[in-house]
Amino acid sequence: MKTLTKELQDKITPAMAIKLLKDGNQRFINNLKVNRNLLNQVNETSESQHPFAVIISCMDSRTSAELIFDQGLGDIFSIRIAGNVINEDILGSAEFGCKVIGAKVVVVLGHTGCGAIKGAVQNVDLGHLHFITSKIQRCIGPIKKEIPNATTQDLCSHVTKGNVELGVSDLTARSSILEEMAHKEEIIIVGALYDVSTGVVEFL
Ligand SMILES: [Zn+2]
Questions:
Q1: pLDDT by residue (tens digit) across 56-94?
Q2: 168 alpha carbon – ligand 1 mean position (Å)
Q3: Residue 110 pLDDT > 90, yes or no?
Q4: N or C: which end of the chain has fewer CB within 10 A?
Q5: Buried b (16+ CB within 10 A) or exposed e, 126-147
Q6: Which residues contact 102 (CB under 8 A, 6 or more apart)?
Q7: Per-residue confidence at 1, pLDDT binned at 50, 70, 90?
Q8: How far is the CA of 153 from the centre of ligand 1 (A)?
Q9: 57 CA from centroid of ligand 1 (Å)
C-alpha cells in the first residue's frame, strides 16, 4: 500500500475511492490490515498530503476512520464530531479537503450505539449539547410519523440512518462548492453506517 502522491491521487476516480474504502473495511473485519511503515509514511508525507477521501464520522472512541477503513498516514481527512452532524466548520473542512486538496469522496458515517443519537431521541439537555442534538432532531419528527409506536431502540436505529441522510443532503444543500463538484462527478458524497458490534461498514 503506497503512500499517496499527487500522481496517484489524480488517478483515483470517485468510484475507485469508494472501492478503496470498502476494501479497507474488508481487511479490517478480516484482521488482515496492511503492515505499514508509519515512520516511513511520516517522511513521505512531510512535504505534502494527497488524501483520497473525507470521512465525517462521530467522535465515538470505537469509530476511528483510519482504523476501520485500514488507511495510513496521508490517506484520508478524518473529520470527527459527536453525532457526525454538519456545521459551518465541517462544511469548510470538507470544501478544503475536496476543492483544495483533491479528495474524491465524502462519506458521512453514522454508527450503531451512538450516544449523540440517543441524546437527541431522549431530548437530553446539557451545556452545549443542544447544538448537536437539535441538528439530529430535524429527522425525528418525520420518522415518528412513519413509525408511531417505535421503541426507543428502534427509533435510535432509524434516526441514526436518517441523520446520515440529513448529513449527506446538508453537504450539497449548504455548500455550492461541494454541490458543483458532485454535479460534475469530480467527487461523490455518500452515507454509510458502521456497526460497532461487527466492525462492518455498510454504504447506503
Ligand atoms: Zn456516536
A1: 999 999 999 999 999 999 999 999 999 999 999 999 999
A2: 16
A3: yes
A4: C
A5: eeeeeebbebbbebbeebeeee
A6: 6, 9, 10, 50
A7: confident
A8: 14
A9: 8
Structure confidence at residue 35 (pLDDT): 95
Question: Grid coordinates in use for 188?
Answer: 461523490
- Cα of 110 vs centre of ligand 1, distance in Å, is 7
79 closest CA partner among 102, 49, 45, 106? 106
Name every residue whose Cβ is closer than 8 Å to that of residue 124 and which is 6 or more positions away in sequence.
118, 133
Separation of 20 CA from ligand 1 center, angstroms?
24
- DSSP code of residue 56: E
What's the mean pLDDT in 126-146?
95
Range 6-203 has CATH code 3.40.1050.10? yes
131 C-alpha vs ligand 1 centroid, how far in Å?
15
CA of 36 to the centre of ligand 1 (A): 28
Mean pLDDT over 184-189 rounds to 98
Q: Label each residue of 96-121 as H, E or C.
A: HHHHHCCCCEEEEEEECCCHHHHHHH
